[in-house]
Amino acid sequence: MEKPLLIFVVLILSLIIISSSATNYIVGDSSGWDISTDLDTWLAGKRFKIGDVLVFQYSSSHSVSEVTKANFEGCNTNSVLDSSKTGNTSFPLTTRGDRYYVCGNRLHCLGGMKLHVNVDDENNAAAESPAAAAPDGGGGSFSPSSKSKNPSYVPSFALCNVHVGLDSIVLVLLGYLCLAFSLL
User: What is the C-alpha separation between 106 and 12, in angstroms, rounded?
Assistant: First the structure.
């Protein structure tokens, strides 16, 4: 009876370690990816690391595109790196550096519906991510939506996006080695 219980405990601990390696951020919290969302406020105090995932939730009048810095600054939506119109889009943060996202509707982008995040590795996480670039004037004025007290991330197991870091793999392998030696 002890060996099956030990196996069960090791498996559960392995799943917890693997599922807690990354954070899934819902862009804009409950307001989502929308022209009325105050993305500067949403970004404040967040640190993004390799393995995290940005989750964009939006209506059919929007889309999300990953673009270069130059296209971000000029709201150029014709030349994009990646784009989606599905209403629920995830962008895994797989490399270190700056990432730029805009709404595919150029007028929305010019109105401030764009996001700039800095991704750092786990050991070198930046103290604070840069805020989204402010609109260059013109356009209209948009008031930010009311902010929710909901957390701005979703545990990785909730969205089935699992990032397995090297540290997690090592811990799982050590657990299995301990289990194997205890069964001998």
Answer: 47
